[in-house]
Amino acid sequence: MTRVAPMAARAAAAALMLAACGGTGERARDAGPSNALLVIGYDREPDTMNRFATHILEDIQGCIVEPLVVADDSMRLVPVLAREVPTPANGGVRLRADGGMDVTWRLRPGIRWHDGVPFTAADLKFTVEAINDPAWNPESTDGFDRIASVETPDSLTAVLHYRERYAPYALQFVRGALPRHVLAGQDLDRHAYNRNPLGTGPYRLAEWKTGEYILLERVTDYWRGTPAIERLQFRFIPNATTRVTQLAAGGVHLIPFLPWDLHRDVARVPGVEVRRTMGNGYEHVSLNQRRVPAFRDVRVRRALWHAVDRTLLVRTVLDGLAPVVDGAIQPMSWAHAADVTGPSFDPAAAAALLDSAGWRDRDGDGIRDRDGQPLAFTLMTSAGFVTREQVAQALQAQWKAVGVATTIDLVDGTAIASRWFAGDFDAFLHWWQMPADPEITLFFAKDRTPPAGRNINYLVDDSLTTLLYRSDAEIDQGRRRALLVAAQRRIMTLVPEIPLYNTTKLDVVPVGLGGFRGNPTNSGPFWNVHEWRFDR
Amino acid sequence: MSLVLRRIGHALPLLVAVSGLAFALIHAAPGGPLELYLSNPNVRPEDIARLRSALGLDRPLPEQYLRWLAGVARGEWGYSLMDGRPVLQRITERLPATLELVLAALGLSLAAAVPAAVVSARGRPRWLARVLQGAAVAGISLPVFWLGLALQLVFAVWLGWLPAAGRASLGDGGLGDRLQHLVLPAVVLAAVHAAAWIRYLRSSLADVLPLACVRAARARGLSPRRVLWGHALRTAWGPFVTVAMLDAALLLSGAVVTESVFAWPGLGTLFTDAIARRDYPVLMAFLMLAAAVVVVANLLADLVQARLDPRSR
Question: Do B153 and A442 count as a contact with CB atoms less than 8 A apart?
Fold first, then answer.
């Protein structure tokens, strides 16, 4: 006769009772979202709270450290700490005879850092000098390194003397500024600022529990009015499925950047809704002309585009979540050329083009060949993204239907970056997150192949290159747009890559949260967090 | 005592060899900590080159290894490539959470495995023994992440009895709250190990039960329970403890999947993060810690074995 069973049963009952009696008595679901606390399920822990040094997104930092201007939900630049966006028309931009330019930033009066010290032009000057100082390693010095000097004629005005014409000048302070009174003369790599930054924004850091969460509390005397939501808790939950389970269990209230393949799981969770925002990026297939001789023929590239039914792809694999796009500059950008559209889905046209390019199936194996070489290449894409793997398989099948053989190569996160940067691939399925400023020279100019840029199609076209560099030096928006439209037309003629769809963002938001507006740029969905409120 | 000293003497060169192998392997993996930054279009090659030089990543690999080794000899484990903080700090702040989880799982495993193995070995009551054997097979076969997600779904979403993830609730963190958060991940981690231990201990017991000494004890009039727990288990214990200790050592680094599913802020999530971002200093420290734990566990297992089983002395 065993006495084990009753013993075990007693032990189990005791454990369960102990667990059940803990905490708040009955195991209630965590409190729902309210103006007292909003819990966000965030997919990773920040590496640093310093906006200039972080290598990942700046959503949390952005609630504390405000920019001078921000790209809003329509991708328009609106002033925040600046009084206005400097333009040639309002005297904020002056082109110098020596080929340089002067940009004058006028700050809003009365802004103070959270410690009470006034926010002044001296902070802007300090920021430029700190970034250009070789002793510090910010993430990027782009743009800052073109500034020869900064003058501060008064405490609210900073004049930046650029050595050359720099079209994206308006975004120079999209990360805000560093506080001079705290960081001057300090070791920026090791300062406590990196764990608890001083800002002017609607929130300040209350607690950072490493590995678990960051808690932000509101700044009651914030210059745009006291934020309605008292506390924001960003919980770090790298596993996407766990994030959704937490949402269903009430442990988190809001999930930004929901992976597309979990969209249907979230639809079943009560009390939340999925907000879609067009993204400032596009998923596309880069075709490496340097490595694959077949890709050097524009007929082959155009044929590959004709062979893909992008509408079907979006409707099935993407559940209709994202619109098809035809180029690098997205529809909500002021530089977008709406009348430049791509080849339609037409397998017959694809076949005809490939025939005319000399690619025919001579050996009867279903794959076209020429001079004994099959029309075959490897499609590289990142591992671990369900949607992308499915898109890759769909492309493979559609290309096979026109006699092109594709092998799929899944490569992981950091390894893939060194591959594409070295041009070590045939075709690459991926997206570019475009900067809010519509500069695309980096991606298409003939001298911007890696390491100088991201022209990983290795496209060499003189007229396109000229157009792009001229647009970079053009400060007047109307003229710049004309140049960029011409560039988009030229790109469509050349078909260096195959755009597929827009990188639409999905944010899961609790019902009843007013003021939430998704943002297509890297400003992120928290760009206007000071306006959020629950009306209860 | 001489055993201990001898083993430590053997362990040091072993650990150095492990460190060299680990260093070579993690650097052999394609990609690196800086390549990821390239996805930001504003980051230029000059920026990457600057960082690479500042972090000492442009030196030849053997030099980087020797620098690391020299640092470790001085007690300096370096700085995380990710956030610039000292590696030791990043590891020690995560250690308590993992220890909590691992010890709870160990306790649960033992509490479940020993009685279950005994019942299973005795074969009576038959229905219970069969159920336990089936459970043991299921426990070994079920993937940890599936079990974790399934339990989350049942207990956190459908029933609402327990929290789905994390270590504590905001503003709480009292013992009851922490226990509630610990239950699911500890059960998941324990399930797999308990299953393996049940089978191991059961077969060890099954070998011992028919032995002459056991039958002799029965013949001397001792009750079956006394024979089982007092004699048979004491004999079968030794090999089981060895296996359990080695297993427990692996639990420290093996809680990776469980921690990921339950967003448990321990060493497991630190490890997966460090791998994804190729944070070499953190990875090296973590691997050395895991190796040291295995060495210590081996040593302890041998000592315990010597105590429990005079035959092996």
Answer: no
Q: How close B15 comes to chain A (CA, Å)?
A: 28
Compute the average pLDDT of residues B174-187.
91
Q: Give the pLDDT score at A10.
A: 55
| Amino acid at position A346, single letter | D
Cβ contact (<8 Å) for A19 and B163?
no
Tokens of A463: 């007229």
CA distance B115 to B96: 29
From A268-272, B185-189, B302-306, the region with the lowest mean pLDDT: B302-306
Full 3-state SS string of A228-273: CCCEEEEEECCCHHHHHHHHHHCCCCEECCCCHHHHHHHHCCCCEE
pTM of the model: 0.88
pLDDT tops 50 at residue A45: yes
Residue of B nearest to A132 (CA): B47
Residue A274 forms beta bridges with which residues?
A: A508
Are the C-beta atoms of residues A158 and A151 closer than 8 Å to each other?
yes
What's the token pair of residue B81? 């490539």
CA distance A400 to chain B (A): 30
For residue A251, list chain B residues with Cβ-Cβ distance below 8 A: 156, 163-166
Give the separation between CA B181 and CA B262, rounded to whole angstroms: 9
Q: Nearest Cα to B255, choosing from B241, B245, B269?
A: B269
Residues 6+ apart with CB under 8 A from A99: A164, A165
Contact B128 A5 (CB under 8 A): yes
Query: Could you say which of A24, A29, A210 has the minimum Cβ distance to residue B93?
Result: A210
DSSP string, A14-55: HHHHHHHHSTTSS-PPPPPP-SSEEEEEESS--S-S-TTT-S
CB A374 within 8 A of CB A362: no
d(CA A12, CA A17): 9
Q: In degrees to the nearest 10, what's the CA dihedral of A27, A32, A34, A36?
A: 20
Are A38 and A191 contacting, i.e. CB atoms less than 8 angstroms apart? no
Distance (Å, whole) CA A400 – CA A73: 40
Percentage of chain B beyond pLDDT 90 is 26
CA distance B311 to chain A (A): 30
**What was the pLDDT predicted at B311?**
67
Residue A190 structure tokens: 């090791």
Q: How far apart are CA B294 and CA B301, in angstroms?
A: 10
**Does pLDDT of B54 surpass 90?**
no
Interchain CB distance below 8 Å, A211 and B266: yes
> Is residue A39 scored above 90 in pLDDT?
yes
Please compute the mean of the pLDDT values over residues B283-300 and round it to a whole number.
88
Give me the percent of chain A exceeding a pLDDT of 70: 94
CA pair distance B256, B251, nearest whole angstrom: 9
Q: Does residue B87 contact residue B285 with C-beta atoms inside 8 Å?
A: yes
Using CA coordinates, name the residue in chain A closest to B81: A47
